[in-house]
User: Which sequence fits this backbone?
């Protein structure tokens, strides 16, 4: 399998994630799509790390995972809290912060 | 100017002359109603004390042969380039003025005790009068143009306050504003003259300016002279700024007597006489002084012939007489003493005439229309006698005050011995004839003829507190001219200021001049008798009159000219400026603010609150950045 296969797969995953973020309303799904995009980026990083034989990309991927874990904690807590007060997990309902 | 002596003895205390009335004004103004009962007495006492002190100072000055005394007080303004020390100069010229101001001032204060007895604002009146006396004394005693200017503005303020003393009357309030504004026009001239002195000479003290004025270019000296003249014209009611003085008669009559006849309005004459060393160097400015004086004396005399308001006739008479003084000081060294002598005698008889007019008004329930007087001579015997003496002095009846001083001016005009001298002398003689006419008309309409009083008027003589000052001023009207011209000549007294009097080569013998002037005055008296005394005086002014009379009734349209030349264009200018300010300046600022506010609220609409919209924006932005990077690296 050549380098481009990995990159195309990462691109497809990223696109699925991005489209999911833009078109879905459920906060949990949007959240999972964001995770998908992060992991697509991780895949790209590790691909390039393997192809160049350095560890920089792998280290950054580890960092991304750590940050993603922290983000999951905070993000899910926010979604829970919004759901408890508004009885809805739709992100279009949480639109009070505007002009 | 000759050398000065440091002031010692009483002259060192001459600052008390100013401080006494000023303290009186302060006590009366700050003390409030508590001083109502004795305020008028305090006000009179301070001026009386100042008069006594002035007498003693003058005696000491005479003892040192009139050598001026310089009194250093304190540093008024001290900056790097510019030091102004406040100081007083007590010299023969200021001594003459101080005696006039405090002397006539004391008499008028005494008179006011009676005149204002029933006025609820009497304390305020005396406070303002004291303030005026203090400012006027500072004006004549200051040793620099800046000190003079402070006094100059002080008398302007006092004049404003006193004209508007009965401020609930719209006429008085308007007249006060008119006087104040027209005085500002003149004051600007005086201020500019002082600025030029600062800029060119670096000093404003009399000694410094007169010592170094000769080093300036001729044009600069002429500019200073003309600007000083503008200031003098404003304060003295001379053409073209004469229109405020007759309106100033809205104030109480003692004010008219003290400020608008005897003292303040002669400040212009003082200024020009004091600035003699400047005018000596600029024949142009001096010629303008002459022209202003000659023109004003005619304007005042012509307008005086047509008015029916007794105080306005006297006011125009004042305008005209000050015209004589300007004419005299415009003649140069030959005329200074004549002008100042006329100023002093005029101070006596015109103050006396105004006090007499006040007494008549007092008797006639504040009536001022002469067509409503008549036959008052046996009801008001003291007023009639004192007023009559003032009248005779003013028209130049032989051997009374005006005869000596006015003739001296006319002689000095003829002594120029050129065509201008003849012209000016002719104008002055014509003015003397007109003076005789309008004053005789006033006498006839007020004291003689049928009684044309309003129903229910019972004229009565004024109390002694009013008649005594009138009698004293009448004595001055009789004797002042003889004393000042013949007995103890003013020329000798003023020698340290103006130099020794020169024996002029008379173009016409003085006896002939005196005969001509007296003859013309007699013609004026006769004409007045023919036109007014012989006939019945109608109670309402005739409507169908000649154009000359109509013009004179409107004071030769001075107000109309001022209104159309200055007031209307001024209003247009202010309206245009307001429009430009509202639409242009404010428009630009407000437009910018409104534009920013509007566009920011439009931009704010982009914040919809939908997270997915933001996400699309971020994605689009990232794509654009990535595309741009690719394009750059690929290219």
Assistant:
């Amino acid at each position: 399998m050549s380098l481009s296969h990995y990159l195309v797969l990462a691109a497809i995953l990223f696109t699925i994630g991005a489209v999911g973020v833009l078109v879905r309303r459920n906060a949990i799904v949007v959240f999972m799509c964001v995770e998908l995009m992060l992991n697509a980026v991780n895949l790209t990083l590790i691909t390039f790390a393997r192809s160049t034989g350095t560890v920089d990309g792998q280290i950054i991927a580890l960092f991304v995972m750590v940050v993603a874990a922290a983000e999951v904690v905070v993000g899910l807590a926010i979604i829970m809290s919004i759901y408890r007060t508004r009885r809805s997990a739709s992100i279009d309902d949480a639109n009070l912060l505007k002009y | 100017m000759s050398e000065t002596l440091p002031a010692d003895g009483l002259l060192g205390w001459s600052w008390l002359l100013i401080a006494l009335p000023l303290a009186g004004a302060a006590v009366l103004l700050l003390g409030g109603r508590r001083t109502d009962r004795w305020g008028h007495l305090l006000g009179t006492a301070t001026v009386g004390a100042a008069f006594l002190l002035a007498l003693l100072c003058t005696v000491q000055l005479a003892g040192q042969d009139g050598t001026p005394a310089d009194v250093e007080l304190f540093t008024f303004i001290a900056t790097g380039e510019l030091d102004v020390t406040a100081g007083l100069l007590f010299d023969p010229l200021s001594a003459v003025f101080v005696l006039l101001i405090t002397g006539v001032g004391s008499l008028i204060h005494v008179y006011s005790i009676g005149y204002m007895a029933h006025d609820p604002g009497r304390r305020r009146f005396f406070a303002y009068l004291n303030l005026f006396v203090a400012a006027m004394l500072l004006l004549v005693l200051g040793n620099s143009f800046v000190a003079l200017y402070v006094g100059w503005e002080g008398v302007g303020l006092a004049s404003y306050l006193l004209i508007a003393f009965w401020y609930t009357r719209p006429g008085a309030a308007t007249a006060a504003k008119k006087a104040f504004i027209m005085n500002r026009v003149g004051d600007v001239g005086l201020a500019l003259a002082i600025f030029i002195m600062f800029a060119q000479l670096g000093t404003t003290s009399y000694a410094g300016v007169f010592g170094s004025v000769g080093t300036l270019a001729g044009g600069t000296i002429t500019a200073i002279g003309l600007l000083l003249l503008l200031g003098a014209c404003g304060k003295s009611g001379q053409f073209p700024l004469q229109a405020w003085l007759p309106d100033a008669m809205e104030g109480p009559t003692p004010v008219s007597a003290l400020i608008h006849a005897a003292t303040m309005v002669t400040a212009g004459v003082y200024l020009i006489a004091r600035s003699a060393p400047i005018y000596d160097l600029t024949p142009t400015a001096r010629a303008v002084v002459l022209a202003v004086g000659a023109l004003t004396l005619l304007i005042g005399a012509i307008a005086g012939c047509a008015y029916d308001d007794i105080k306005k006739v006297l006011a125009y008479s004042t305008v005209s007489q000050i015209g004589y003084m300007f004419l005299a000081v415009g003649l140069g060294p030959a005329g200074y003493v004549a002008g100042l002598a006329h100023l002093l005698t005029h101070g006596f008889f015109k103050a006396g005439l105004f006090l007499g007019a006040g007494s008549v008004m007092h008797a006639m329930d504040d009536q001022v229309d002469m067509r409503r007087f008549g036959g008052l001579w046996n009801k008001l015997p003291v007023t009639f006698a004192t007023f009559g003496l003032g009248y005779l002095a003013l028209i130049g009846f032989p051997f009374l005050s005006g005869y000596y001083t006015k003739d001296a001016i006319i002689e000095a005009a003829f002594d120029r011995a050129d065509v201008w001298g003849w012209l000016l002398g002719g104008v002055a003689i014509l003015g003397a004839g007109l003076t005789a006419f309008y004053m005789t008309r006033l006498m006839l309409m007020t004291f003689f003829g049928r009684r044309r009083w309003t129903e229910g008027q019972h004229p009565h003589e004024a109390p002694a507190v009013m008649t005594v000052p009138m009698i004293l001023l009448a004595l001055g009207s009789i004797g002042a001219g003889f004393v000042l011209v013949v007995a103890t000549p003013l020329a000798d007294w003023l020698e340290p200021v103006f130099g020794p009097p020169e024996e002029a080569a008379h173009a016409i013998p003085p006896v002939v001049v005196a005969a001509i002037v007296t003859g013309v005055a007699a013609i004026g008296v006769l004409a007045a008798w023919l036109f007014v005394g012989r006939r019945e005086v109608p109670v309402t002014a005739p409507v169908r009159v000649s154009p000359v009379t109509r013009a004179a009734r409107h004071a030769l349209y001075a107000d109309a000219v001022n209104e159309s030349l200055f007031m209307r264009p001024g209003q247009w200018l202010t309206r245009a400026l307001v429009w430009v300010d509202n639409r242009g300046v404010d428009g630009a600022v407000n437009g910018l603010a409104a534009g920013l506010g509007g566009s920011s609220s439009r931009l704010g609409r982009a914040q919809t609150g939908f997270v997915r919209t933001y996400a699309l924006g971020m994605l689009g932005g990232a794509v654009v950045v990535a595309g741009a990077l690719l394009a750059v690296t690929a290219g």
